[in-house]
Amino acid sequence: MSRNITYREAINEALVQEMERDPSVVVLGEDNAGGAGAPGESDAWGGVLGVTKGLQPRFPDRVLDTPISESAFIGAAIGAATRGLRPVAELMFIDFMGVCLDQIFNQAAKFRYMFGGRAVTPVVIRTMYGAGLRAAAQHSQSLYPVFTSVPGLKVALPSSPYEAKGLLVQAIRDDDPVIFCEHKALYDTVGEVPAESYAIPFGEAQIVREGGDVTIVALGRMVSVAVEAADELAASGVRCEIVDPRTTSPLDEDTILESVEHTGRLVVVDEAGPRCGTAADIAALVAGKAFGALRAPVGTVTPPHTPVPFSPPLEDLYVPDATRVAAAVKSVLDWKA
Amino acid sequence: MDDRITPVTMPKWGLSMKTGRITDWLAAPGDEVAEGDGLAEIDTDKIAGTLEAPAGGVLRAIVAEAGGDAPVGCAVALLAPGDVPQEEIAAAVAEARELLARGQPAEPDGTGPATGAVDVAGRSLAYATEGDGPETVVLVHGFGGDKDSWLFVRTPLAARHTVYALDLPGHGDSVKDVGDGGLVVLADAVTGFLDVLGLDRVHLVGHSLGGAVAGAVAGQVPGRVRSLTLVAPAGYGPELDSGYLRGFAGARTRRELKPHLAKLFADGDRVTRQLVDDLLRYKRLDGVAEALAALVPTVEALDLARTPLDVPLRVVWGGADRVIPASNRRSLEGRAREVRVVEGAGHMVHMEAPGEVTQLIERAVTG
Amino acid sequence: MPDTLRTPRDPATGGLDAAALLDAYRTMRTIRVFEERLHDEFATGDIPGFVHLYAGEEASAAGVCGWLDDERDVIASTHRGHGHCIAKHVDVKAMMAEIYGRATGSCHGKGGSMHIADLSRGMLGANGIVGGGPPLVCGAALASKVRGDGGVAVAFFGDGGANQGTTLESLNLATVWHLPAVFIAENNGYAEATAAEWSVGGGSVAARAAAFGMPGTTVDGFDFFAVREAAGEAIERARTGGGPSLVEVRLTRYYGHFEGDQQTYRTTEVQRARAELDCLLRFRTRVTASGDLTAAQLDAVDEEVAALIEEAVTEAKAAPLPTAADLDTDVYVTY
After folding, report:
1. Which of A163, A194, A225 is the last residue of a domain?
2. Are residues A273 and A147 both part of a single domain?
3. Could you state, in order of their start, the residue ranges of all structural domains in chain C?
4. What pLDDT does C4 receive?
5. Which of A336, C173, C182, C319 is deepest in the core (most CB within 10 A)?
6. Is residue B69 over pLDDT 70?
7. pLDDT at position C3 over 70
């Protein structure tokens, strides 16, 4: 049975169902219940944006509030994972990776390799990313390329409520450390989601829409931006194929390459920056492995190489929108050698 | 509007369908058409199919041109006898086009399928029901299918009959636990379904594995089965593509699944992105992989060719069936009142030639 | 005062029987010979990379880990981790092979000296990052607390690690979550070449415990029995739901920060420590004086250990190196 629920509800439901299914799943993070030690409600917040609301009353021993101490509790989640728990730790904003990165990239990511394949670290780090909420430079970044570049980590970017639930279930069941990136502007989006539990395998892109003229690879919130652009372009007869990789690590190279071989043109839309980012990575992939299929240079639509600005008109200019995507598609289509 | 004018409306194929696009008209204004004739090809974001004439008559006007979208329930063409004056047709077209332009259906949409679930021995079985005619038709899908596999025959049948399409255990929205995966588990589920809904006299239709199940139900409770229609049934003959079964059951990704799905249809274009996605969404549900894995050996071991069937029997097969070839029909010839082979259709003959299958079921119902 | 070296209540042999005393001696002796042999072997150039030797600090690893069982108790170590590994029963030959970069090593040659681990023995790894272990130990302790299995997790860190934010955050988290965790600060006087007296603000690591609401104590790291007693109290407290503790163990490393360190920053302390304070000598004197063990029994252990280390080196040198096929395996469980 599918119902229409929000991205936030889909994530919450995945957590509830996995905690019910598996007693080794624990949830921890700053204000994940909210109100620990305070005189009022004990499930006051359910996470800063309410994603984990209701979990603590249901699983009082397995939902832990933490001090604002990311190194310690992200590291603790990782340590607990090596000892048989399946912790889902919340790094509130991906921007805060700077205060706990060592535990993620030097510890969790490397245990299995450093220890000769004898470590299993099934930790999930849920984290919010992305601009659009006027949250300024330290609460708005799309830093997942940093994690994507680290061997040993998996990185998921759900683009819809259906994707959010299925990818989070997979993340929790996965035996490798997973960075699960939730776009804060997607929390209130609604979509059809099965009530039953399901896991979407990592490393398989979804083809959001089929079309023969141009491939648009888009990630996370940029998928809906790409769809909006594709709708505009459809009116002028341009058929876009939209590929959502779902995970940047592992990356479904085959689906991207097959699509480009079919369309001959590629635009990558990413909210991460233009340097050493996903767009550059995918452009390089296609240039290296499908050069013969390309009928135009690869187009990329990313924010500029700047911090995320605060003032609304500036932030609106910063985030890629459908108009910019449509323009990039047109320029790829109009390109003449 | 002259009540002799019959609007041909955009059908609702599945609960989520809101609009459809007419990709091609198969008939032209002035053509004489019979009920069930294909009028247009329709594409939705979920499924592609043929719009069939709801009644016989002359196709007097096309309201929605090919390439256009129309909301479910909107008139897209008008049928009427030749003696209805052209002015009346023109007025009806103008009215219908205005509604179409406003994106509104001609009539409120209340005629779609209703869905529900029943508890059969502690196990939830989901179903869709449509129509309220005196005879009851129960549709049983095949391996990996669900109640919506019958979309194209369910709605036409519902015009005259009460139609139920259920989800077998392990499928659709039903319980995913299939026990040991034996045929009896599935047959008991269907019999239990009839019990709970108080369906005492039904016309059973089963496709593929659902055919074997329907046959087993007819064996369990012959007195409650007025007729049996087997659509490319499993188990009645020696041939079966195990590679398909195992491939479908084992596939986890689009890349793995798609080649297997191509075997289901004579026309490979039927395997749309949406069909693949919908099946993947089903296959990802907890318990489905286990259910399908448990059912594979059951399907492979079915041997029903000599099982007696003491009910009026009809059989239809796609001539281009690559999963269970139509040659298997030989074990049923002589026992069935009718064995029909539809050339140019594959294993999903009820999707590729729904008119033929609907008509066969109609003949089963009317005896 | 946590900064005052405590005196063991039982000055003799800690209530250990002869077998347990021999076991403790064997652990310390194995660590010593392992490290001294590495010192010699490193000089030949056969060992790749860096090694950080633990010689001199044996009483700490043995005194703490003697209370732990392999099944439910966990330790996290430092870049100076060989001693902790041996005390937590990681296979010595596999360790030696690992340090030689061999396919037969504890980590199949992919970790090396700084990353020896054996999770099956509750050894969560030596760690190349100073302060890397304490957060992990909070997690291991949390796992035991959630499961209610009575397990205890122990973080070893040095005077250098004591100044890392991760360590201080972990002390806080362990208190806030009331974890069955023990923090063992091995203060050997130097973080690399920088003196603890200069870098540890306030002068005492153990004194910091009070700020986090946990007991803190300082022990003489040359005295196996003193370490054992202090660690035992902390571990028992953790195991019985009393929460975390901090024990600062004062000791001296006999070699440089890493092999090749010319140690121009220090003077005569090592010679003095070796001659007057050495944990193995003190242990031998104590147990033979008490009559619990004879010199012959200890000598027999020395011979046994010498043979083991000799074999470990011989086998490590003869062991196969990893091949190209090993380069990209073991990154993920599935990918």
Report:
1. A194
2. no
3. 18-320
4. 75
5. C182
6. yes
7. no
Enclosing domain of residue A156: 2-194
ipTM over 0.90 threshold: yes
Residue B279: list chain A partners with CB under 8 A: none
- Residue ranges matching CATH 3.40.50.1820 in chain B: 114-366
Mean pLDDT computed over every residue of chain C: 95
Check CB contact under 8 Å for A80 and C142.
yes
Q: What are the catalytic residues of C?
A: 253, 257, 265
Architecture of the CATH domain C18-320: 3-Layer(aba) Sandwich (3.40)
A65/A174 same-domain check? yes
Q: Do residues A256 and A148 share a domain? A: no
Shared domain for A178 and A230, answered yes or no, is no
pLDDT for res B70: 85
Residues of A in contact with C118 (CB under 8 A): 118
Beta-carbon-side half-sphere exposure of residue C281 (alpha carbons within 13 Å): 8
Q: For B6-101, CATH number?
A: 2.40.50.100
The chains found to touch C (3+ Cβ pairs under 8 angstroms) are A
* DSSP per residue, C269-310: HHHHIIIII-HHHHHHHHHHHHTSS-HHHHHHHHHHHHHHHH
Please enumerate in sequence order all residues whose Cβ is within 8 A of that of A235, keeping only pairs 6 or more positions apart, or say none. Answer: none
Same domain, A189 and A211: no
Is residue A49 one of the residues assigned to a domain?
A: yes
Element containing residue C249 per DSSP (H, E): strand C245-250
Is residue C176 within 8 angstroms of chain A, CB to CB? yes
Interface list for chain A against chain B, based on CB atoms closer than 8 Å = 1, 162, 166, 192, 194, 196-201, 204, 206-207, 209-210, 254-255
The CATH number that domain B114-366 falls under is 3.40.50.1820
Q: Tell me, yes or no, whether A125 and A226 share the same domain.
A: no
The pair phi, psi for residue A7, each rounded to 5°, is: -55, -40
Query: B28 pLDDT exceeds 70?
Result: yes
Give the number of C-alpha atoms closer than 13 A to the C-alpha of residue C23, restricted to the C-beta side.
12
> C185-198 pLDDT, tens per residue?
999 999 999 999 99
Residue C323: half-sphere exposure toward Cβ, Cα within 13 Å: 2
pLDDT digits over B286-340, tens only?
999 999 999 999 999 999 988 888 899 999 999 999 999 999 999 999 899 999 9
Backbone angles phi and psi of B336, in degrees to 5: -100, 150
Q: Return the residue of A nearest to B272 by Cα.
A: A210
Q: How many domains does chain A have?
A: 2
Q: How confident is the model at residue C149 (pLDDT cuts 50, 70, 90)?
A: very high
- Known catalytic residues of A are 139
Residue A333 in 3-state DSSP?
Answer: helix
CA distance A174 to chain C (A): 8
Residue A200 lies in a domain: no
Residues A26 and A167 in one domain: yes
pLDDT of B106 > 60? The answer is no
Q: Which two tokens stand for residue A236?
A: 């002028």
pLDDT tens for each residue of A192-230: 999 999 999 999 999 999 999 999 999 999 999 999 999
* List of E strands, chain A: 2-6, 25-29, 63-65, 86-93, 124-129, 154-156, 178-183, 190-194, 206-209, 214-218, 240-244, 247-249, 266-269, 299-301
Q: Which chains touch A (3 or more CB pairs under 8 A)?
A: B, C
Q: Is residue A298 part of a domain?
A: yes
Interface of A with C in 116-155 (CB under 8 A): 116-120, 151-152, 154
pLDDT in tens, A18-65: 999 999 999 999 999 998 999 998 889 999 999 999 999 999 999 999
Chain A and chain B share a number of CB contacts under 8 A equal to 36
